[in-house]
Amino acid sequence: MNLLVCFKIVPDFDKVLPSDWEDFSLRTNLFYTKKTYNVFDESALELGLSLCESSNRRAPGSATCTAVTVAQELSPAVKKHLYAVGFDRVVKIESIQTEFAPRRMAGLLREFITEGRFDLVLTGVQSGYADTGLVPPLLASMLGRPFVSHAETLCFYDGQLCVVHQGDFGRLRTTLELPAVVSVGNSPAALRAATLRAQLMAGKREVETVFPAEDFFWFKEPVFFTEKAEKDCRFFEEKDAAERLFAHLWGGGSE
What is the DSSP letter of 230? Predict the structure, then answer.
């Protein structure tokens, strides 16, 4: 089995300063925020590793696991960590525009998946600035593969992939024949830590970089604005507070 996990490194938006939210754009410099795995992608990475390990325990050498991202750059720390926890390959598809372009992202991933002949593709259910969740279903449609969303756990049973996932009316269990695409939602899986020895050994390995044949496309940057959540509080005098409040709520008064 040739397994691929798609991931994305994003800023920790909880650490963005209020002043930067006031005039936010894709060019806002968030250098001070920590860059981290998208939470859903992080679960997908761990589930992919676990699946490969279980397959290789049953039949040594039967599964390989690749991590891929579409980005302009990938930090050495992320690269080292992914190799150290057990990924066979870490690949960066280099692209200038990676936000608010889901069809473009899905197209780049489709080209890489088709050439690599990956049997199972795992993604996070949503990631990036917009969190639209469009890339996984678009990717599955482009590949012509069955698709399951909001997965929580994965395992192989009788030669089929068994997916426990969140449905419209509760949790469901679905079995799939490979090849397939699965997006991971609120999963209990968390990406494992790497030992110091593994990190030292992984430090010498390099990221494989793929350059798309064409990386230019027409893009119109969306306009961002921050919703105001301020409240206009008014205080009534104690002696006639009840009457004035009643008049205010029911439109019977001028105040």
Answer: -
pLDDT band at 235 (very low <50, low <70, confident <90, very high): low
Coil vs helix vs strand at 154:
strand
* 87-132 pLDDT per residue, tens: 999 999 998 878 888 998 999 999 999 999 999 999 999 987 888 8
| The residue to which tokens 């525009």 are assigned | 97
Please give the full DSSP string across 49-107, using - where no structure is assigned: HHHHHHHHHHSTTS-EEEEEEEES---HHHHHHHHHHT-SEEEEEE-S--SS-HHHHHH
End-to-end CA distance of the chain: 71
Dig out the tokens for 255 from the structure. Answer: 């105040």
Mean pLDDT across the stretch 75-96?
A: 94
Helix (H, G, I), strand (E, B) or coil at 103: helix
Which residues sit opposite 29 in a β-bridge?
none
Domains, in order of start, for the chain? 2-222 (3.40.50.620)
Q: 86: alpha, beta or left, given left = phi > 0 and alpha = psi -120 to 50?
A: left
Alpha carbon distance 43, 166 (integer Å): 15
From residue 231, alpha-carbon distances to 228, 234 in Å are: 9, 10
Q: Are strands 89-94 and 120-124 parallel, antiparallel or unpaired?
A: unpaired
pLDDT bracket for residue 28 (50, 70, 90): confident
Gyration radius (Cα) of the chain, Å: 23
DSSP string, 5-26: EE--EEE-GGGS-HHHHHT--T
* pLDDT at residue 253, as a whole number: 47
Tokens of 126: 């949503």
Average pLDDT of the residues of the chain:
88
